[in-house]
Amino acid sequence: MNHKLWLLGRSVTVGAHMAGEAVTRPKARALHDVPVSGESVTPDWLTAVLCRDVPGARVLSFENSNGSRGTSTRVAIRVEYNDAGIEAGLPRELFAKTTTAFSQRILLGGGKMIDGETRFFKDFRPRVEMEAPIGYWGASDAASWRSIALMEDIAATRGAVFSEPTAPIGREQIEDLVRNLARLHGTFWENPAIEVLNTPAYMLDAYLAAIDMRKRCEVGLVRAQEVVPETLHGQANRLWAGVERAITIATEDIPPTLLHGDPHIGQTYRTREGRMGYVDWQVVMRGGWAHDFAYTVNSGCEPDDRRAWDRDLLRAYLAELAAAGGAAPAFDDAWLLYRQQSMFAYAAWAFTIGRAAYQPRMQSNETCLTLLKRITTAIDDHDSLGALGV
């Protein structure tokens, strides 16, 4: 099947559904309804999804607040229950992520990510001891690519403060993050349950079918030239060859585990107790551990901090991985994989700042430039392209 033709056809179908939604303004009321947005839910729908296991419990009312929009549309929901719901301790502080915009539906649906977060919260989150939100419900509509993920509002329940990507991170915080990854990876190390997930190679193919990611990265490299090491200027073709080789290694050459997939520093938070965790599990996938580790460390650390910390961070990760049930590689082997796996992080952020006019604006230029400075400096410091043989 020609994926681009398929996506074109799906775009027409999704657009038609959205036109119908604009006219009818459907409200979600029954369990299997998929809301158009967090504002279009109803007490009946919330009762159906939140009270389904508690006889007599009902949602009486709810309030929305703190809305924002990026790759999904997000809104906080505060729920009020009847006495049965209160006595059962049903969750009151919720956070909904929906696909309300055409660009969101095409990006997530066309990239086969529309149910990624739902799958993580339903099938995997209950099985791992880590710092991440709890999920309560998720659903998607195959025809319209409407989707919703209903989860814990960690800002309210855990006092979470979300990381500012442009701010430096402390040594204890970044180690807590990589240990968190290690517990996730160790729990699902070569686990048969992850076979249903897409691989990094599959996801890259999906991106390429939806958009000319290679060209957008070339444009992004030019736009970010002021922060990119001079040795990488004009090296768009070689960098892209490195991306493809790194993705192949992450897919085929490393024992598979459950990956966050997009664990940049902007996807993290700190609880009132000081614990670091991850949000936004939309692109959860199956692949090699170093993909997540390199992405977190190289996007999060300022260059001088990363130079001082990364070997110790890798040792901490490997120790935690072994404790969590993963087959931790020898340090030298792990160090080589770390050097090789900086490339997808580069592609993700070069693509973001190199966006075409028809792409949604997902991040500010300041954030893109900050993260690309950190990531491309790591690529240069570690001679990642040489380590990949490109």
Automatic annotation (TrEMBL):
Transmembrane segments: none annotated. It comes from the Bacteria. This is Aminoglycoside phosphotransferase domain-containing protein. Residues 116-322 form the Aminoglycoside phosphotransferase domain. SUPFAM superfamilies: Protein kinase-like (PK-like). It comes from Nocardia macrotermitis. InterPro entries: Aminoglycoside_PTrfase (IPR002575), Kinase-like_dom_sf (IPR011009).
